[in-house]
Write a structure and sequence with these properties.
The structure is a single chain. The chain is of the alpha/beta class and 339 residues long. The protein is 49% helix and 14% strand. Helix 5 runs parallel beside helix 6 and helix 6 packs parallel to helix 7. Bound molecules: zinc ion.
Length: 339
């Protein structure tokens, strides 16, 4: 039985290297000629990058091949893997639909095509053999114009059965100069009834507190307990949850090892701030959710009690899980008690 909730995973980073390489090979993509054997491709694909911006270039590479004709291939495989290998029963999958539209067309045309993308992603995720509940989070992007970001919010609100929230992603060096726009967008999203999260306080560049009041959850947020712990009581008050994705910080060069995360978990626990452990890019990292758990445990970053708290928190803070009190774990407990 699938047990876990995953709140932070990107479509662009959710494809495991082998599935992606096979796709490139079949299509005769230039990269498959550059990396003719799987091992060399995997090394290139999963290697740590020196900065968040460089790391995000890999996303662009995957995004460029995720179009309407290939989405069914990638989404069906990632859902199958999440269910079979990770025990995930609830998945919030995030991406920027605009980047999956036809780049040769006008902005207006591409905005129109975003709805086809959202519907196709949902349809491709539906397979009775792998029955997980998947909802989408649409990501505004720091490099896209306001007109496109605004359209994504409106699209999200108009597809409530498929989309559960909005996010802000992209290089965080572009956040502060456009802060008024981001605030306006998140306010608008909330007025339309959407849940909100943003990649924030992930690196030293993305530490702008002005967005915090408009968020239900915080994507990463590790710099809050590490560098701005005075903000923690406010987060606790607002009931905001951090989406912590351990392997990401090694791949982006944000942390040199995972030991600093010990401080993150300890300070959040003391302040009463919930944490959900997530993968961010399970495919790109080649580290699936149970392995994120195991890495933290074996390196003594957390103990099993903390893991249990974080797993429960993931259901509590899920944007579309129907009942936070009723999780797969509690259902099994009920079955045992009734037997
Ligand atoms: Zn992310």
């Amino acid at each position: 039985m699938a047990l876990h909730a995953e709140l932070h995973r990107h479509l662009g980073g959710a494809v495991v290297p082998r599935v992606f390489w096979r796709y490139l090979l079949r299509r005769g993509h230039p990269l498959s000629r550059q990396y003719p054997d799987y091992e060399s491709f995997e090394s290139f694909f999963t290697a740590p990058r020196s900065s968040l911006s460089e790391y995000l270039e890999l996303h662009s590479l995957v995004e460029s091949v995720q179009t309407l004709d290939t989405i069914p291939y990638f989404v069906s495989k990632l859902v199958r893997g999440a269910y079979v290998f990770e025990g995930i029963c609830y998945l919030e999958l995030r991406y920027t639909p605009y980047y999956r539209t036809d780049s040769t067309r006008s902005e207006e045309w591409r905005i129109g095509q975003m709805r086809d993308v959202v519907r196709l992603v949902a349809e491709s995720a539906t397979d009775p053999r792998y029955p997980l509940l998947m909802r989408q989070i649409l990501c505004m992007h720091s490099l896209l114009p306001q007109s496109v970001n605004r359209a994504m919010i409106e699209l999200a609100a108009s597809e409530p059965k498929l989309v559960c929230g909005v996010d802000l992603a992209g290089p965080d060096t572009h956040y502060s100069p456009r802060m008024d726009e981001w605030i306006e967008n998140f306010r608008y999203a909330r007025v339309l009834g959407l849940k909100t999260t943003a990649h924030l306080f992930e690196t030293a560049n993305g530490c702008d507190p002005r967005l915090l009041p408009y968020l239900d959850r915080i994507g990463h947020g590790i710099q809050i307990p590490l560098r701005y712990p005075k903000l923690l009581p406010m987060l606790a008050n607002e009931g905001q949850c951090l989406e912590i994705c351990p392997t990401t910080y090694l791949k982006t060069g944000t942390l040199s090892d995972l030991s600093s995360l010990r401080e993150v978990f300890t300070r959040c626990k003391e302040a009463g701030v919930d944490i959900a452990i997530c993968t961010d890019n399970a495919g790109l990292h080649n580290v699936r959710l149970p392995w994120e758990y195991e890495n933290l445990l074996t390196q003594d970053i957390i103990d099993f009690d903390t893991l249990n708290d974080c797993q429960d928190a993931a259901f509590r803070h899920a944007f579309a899980w129907p009942d936070s009190q009723r999780t797969p774990k509690s259902m099994i407990k009920d079955l045992i008690a009734a037997s």
